Amino acid sequence: xxxxxxxxxxxxxxxxxxxxxxxxxxxxxxxxxxxxxxxxxxxxxxxxxxxxxxxxxxxxxxxxxxxxxxxxxxxxxxxxxxxxxxxxxxxxxxxxxxxxxxxxxxxxxxxxxxxxxxxxxxxxxxxxxxxxxxxxxxxxxxxxxxxxxxxxxxxxxxxxxxxxxxxxxxxxxxxxxxxxxxxxxxxxxxxxxxxxxxxxxxxxxxxxxxxxxxxxxxxxxxxxxxxxxxxxxxxxxxxxxxxxxxxxxxxxxxxxxxxxxxxxxxxxxxxxxxxxxxxxxxxxxxxxxxxxxxxxxxxxxxxxxxxxxxxxxxxxxxxxxxxxxxxxxxxxxxxxxxxxxxxxxxxxxxxxxxxxxxxxxxxxxxxxxxxxxxxxxxxxxxxxxxxxxxxxxxxxxxxxxxxxxxxxxxxxxxxxxxxxxxxxxxxxxxxxxxxxxxxxxxxxxxxxxxxxxxxxxxxxxxxxxxxxxxxxxxxxxxxxxxxxxxxxxxxxxxxxxxxxxxxxxxxxxxxxxxxxxxxxxxxxxxxxxxxxxxxxxxxxxxxxxxxxxxxxxxxxxxxxxxxxxxxxxxxxxxxxxxxxxxxxxxxxxxxxxxxxxxxxxxxxxxxxxxxxxxxxxxxxxxxxxxxxxxxxxxxxxxxxxxxxxxxxxxxxxxxxxxxxxxxxxxxxxxxxxxxxx
Length: 677
Fold this sequence. Notes:
mainly beta; 22-stranded parallel sheet; 15-stranded parallel sheet
């Protein structure tokens, strides 16, 4: 047709043997052109079936065989299956699933609304709203977003950010600037039993978004997990646990994190559950409730902030900068406490306490050290149970030392128990330096004899074996089995006793098995009910073997019985007589009885001669209360007494009154022997 062909009905032809050329438009008026052959040239018309096969349109998805190359923006609305490698120099968008049997290389963005499956994938920006599975390696130059689970059988290298809505399962090495988990993500796993020990997992930054929870980041059967990141951070989040697991024992390299940041976070806890440890290389913490701990022991646990549990089965329950390095060791809390040693050590809390030997314990306090096996310190400050003090104990106090096996200091200040089974109960500056020795308290007391005892006082010393100082000041019991008490008493012989009053003067007893007491105020012995023989006080000799003989007794009725002889320093027998009112008498006065008053006075003619005023009686026949003695005169009746020469006359040896009554006889020493007539 040389001009226009205008057909208002159908046009049918068996064969067109020449080209149909129109210089104008071909208007089908909403009708179809059918029975076209597949096009050969770029300007050939094509059927719908031909186009659907290429674009994934129609009812069946497109199947692309061989190597495919796409340029520009390419969008497939159905499932696309590629049986070989695919190279896309522009962007690729798939509204359903993309399944690449070979490698997928997209120089631009890869946006898949459905699932992504490929052997190996290399893209610039990758987005998959559902699951993504890569059988080999995955290399993304910029950001990656996966709405479901990301499963990569090989190594993964994310130069940008990784945002995973589900689980992250990587069997090879993982490198990313940022791993960003979404709402409700519970697990991020990188695990495979077949991964070689040279594989590594590396994070640059792990970020937990607002109100996200992460329970585990786990790595099994890997030599090392390194989080050499700028930040491990959580913003406005509630993180219960961040568990890092490498599946190896504590001898392997720990997991390291350089900087940890938490802003307004309920709690952030780092834990290596199976050994290897979590190590913070720099203490750069910021934000709210943050806890970063290092756990390198098998089955160990650490809670709190910057604590270390490096011993197998060790536990740090809380606090800050505490360390449990011994097997089965425990630190309850506090600050900078250490439970070290070969095992079973415990520090309950406090500050700067150390339990460093097997089975040792420090319950609390500050600066205490229990370094002996089985040693224990209850509390206090700067107390020490030394390394050679097995099973020693210090209850508390300040600067006390237990330096020998089973030694004990209960409390006090600067006390020392330095020999086996020695004890200082308290006080200040006391020392128990011999086996089984004891100081109860006081200050600067020393028990240096075996089984010696000083209950208290000041500057007392019990240096004899089995000696005792009851108390007081500057007493010494240096003899074996000796005893001292009071002030400056010294019992230096075996079995000697020395007791004194408050006079500052030495009271020394150096006689074996003897008793010496000094009481310048006198003795007051008060007995109880009389015994069967009526006695209340007895003095006896002998022993239980040879027998006991009573040498002296005070009876309950006032009688006194002596088996031997009474010897007195005096020389007369005297009695008390009532004297005349106003009479002043002196020793040596001749005494007469005034017959008018019945009382005595200095002798006058006509009186009855009684005797001489006693100077030093040997025995007094009666007793007058002390408050009445000023009204009485003690008159010698028998014996040898001094006399006043101006009141007598002497004729030969006869001594008389002025009126010739005999007083007695003059003795060689100048005294008169009384023979009153």
